[in-house]
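Exam revision sheet. Question 4 asks you to relate a sequence to its structure. Input first:
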Amino acid sequence: MKIRADFVTNSSSVSYIITMHQETAEKFKGLFCDFDKNSGKSRIFDFLKAQLLKSEFIVKPFGNVYYKVFTFHKGKDMKLFGKPSAEYDFGSMSEEELLKYIYGEYFFHKKIEIIEGFAAVQMPISVQKNSDVV
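Answer key, structure tokens:
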């Protein structure tokens, strides 16, 4: 059992709600993706955008805000972080490997906020319904 900031969990998985405001994300895509052309950021952006658009969960009051729940297994899905992005060949990564990398570098380390238009919220419990489990 692990004690986290404000809740207790013995779950072996973790869930994140990822949101994307489509108009903002498209507007600022160049700022994120062109910063370092060899880092795989363009593939990461396109992958996340496609996953959220595919989810069909949308909130209309604030424009087109898409959301999706992603669930990861803490042990086995944590093997793809810690290395510099230059050490990865993003073009040859499978979607599963890319998602694990995104989990480690962008969800777990909260770097997703550097992609304008995207945000993440960690759930205190594992959410299986309407989620992709990796």
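Marking note for examiners. Residues 18-133 form one domain.
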